């Protein structure tokens, strides 16, 4: 008999600033285009609202450089497993960035 190993996800409340190599499981509540108002509303990427199993809300963004990889996969209400992302740093050009909502 084989036993299935339970996979442990990092909770959004435990994500620290900087590059994360952990894995988080989140539900995508909403996403919308993010214009840069300082640059004539030039498209910057997509902002999103995420929630985890502990009901922790977090804002996230995908830069315009990575948008073509992810945009077709986004569906509001769906659950996603995220890995290799930046925590709390919206300055990264090629990153999925998350910032905790206080």
TrEMBL record:
This is Uncharacterized protein. It comes from Brassica napus (Rape).
